Amino acid sequence: MATIHFLGRLQDAVGTSALTVALPGGVRDAESLRAWLGRDHPALREPSVRIAVNSSLHPGNAPLAEGDEIAFLPPMSGG
Amino acid sequence: MATIHFLGRLQDAVGTSALTVALPGGVRDAESLRAWLGRDHPALREPSVRIAVNSSLHPGNAPLAEGDEIAFLPPMSGG
Amino acid sequence: MIRLEAEPFDAGVELASFAASAPGAGAIASFVGLVRCESGGRDVSGLELQHYPGLTEKTLAAIAADARARFELTSLVIVHRYGAMEPGEPIVFVAAAAAHRRAAFDAVDYMMDLLKTEAAFWKREHGPQGPRWIEARAADLDDRARWG
Amino acid sequence: MIRLEAEPFDAGVELASFAASAPGAGAIASFVGLVRCESGGRDVSGLELQHYPGLTEKTLAAIAADARARFELTSLVIVHRYGAMEPGEPIVFVAAAAAHRRAAFDAVDYMMDLLKTEAAFWKREHGPQGPRWIEARAADLDDRARWG
Fold first, then answer.
1. pTM here?
2. Interface predicted TM-score of the whole assembly (ipTM), two decimals
3. How close does chain A come to C56, measured CA to CA in Å?
4. Is residue D26 within 8 Å of C40, Cβ to Cβ?
């Protein structure tokens, strides 16, 4: 199982702010998760949407493991 | 009579922060006052030293009248 | 020093306490960002800042570390709100102390540019026309690009 | 708003009161200049700011008017000390409020550059090596020249 958060406008696009899902066997990294969820929720496929794993942003494609906390992040804007 | 103030380092150069003097007949404007006082106090002749008349800075050479308050100002620096 | 705050803060109190903790500095530059009652021609009744606990702190710490590395500062502070805010309330307070003013000015300017584009917050404006998510303005991205 | 102060002021109180009087602003930039205990390698035990009543107010008003004309501000404030000050005490507080941060930042930066070169004050540092008058640094004149 993995917990997946959707931040900002992505929670409207997906219809929820978080999901707990069993990852299919073929989904072992962040980009394959994006492709899998992106079939139903095209907003997740936008290049500006980044993926955090366990509250960290990794350069490139991060591997996923059981129990990870994953978050889809649209462009940030504080201040 | 005119009151003449010397600000900043000019009060050290002249030896006082203010004078009250009778202006000689030939001293009818700020630059002739500068020339007159500048004979004894060369610091007053420096081009960076400006002359205020009645608390105002005038472009060019300001005329002087009886009772004016005049000030010799070295470069300013606040903040 | 970095603080995430759920409740409104007083920028004056923040500046006073920052100044008291910055002995030896000759220059303190600071910035306060406030909720406006208007945005892009729309009335705004409230602003919501979503954050992502864990990540948001990391992005703020990275911005502070970048500023410390880039400018000669004696100290800096970032105080950032999250949650629901009303017009007039402060969103962010940033201050930098240095021997001379140029480093302090530049550091605050730099931190604000990074906060606008790289701090893990997401903004939703509320108003009579309903809520809308807002992202960094083109001007914010241009400002960010100035620093390389 | 412009104030000349003989006594120490609290920059935090100034910022709080400025912010309270700046409704509708989205951005407040501010600067505090403080007496340092060191200057050009010399220990400083105190700073004396001479002013020239009548003229000093005019030069401050001219700087504020220049900033208002040049930048889109909702309000601004200059609080400037004169007289004898000790290390750590504030010399000047400048703040500008605007809809967006660029105008507020630039206005404070601009006002400080003008204060350093065109405000009618004369500074004397005191310390173990005796008093000395100090004038604008070359960097201050360069900064001033940026604005044309």
1. 0.95
2. 0.94
3. 9
4. no
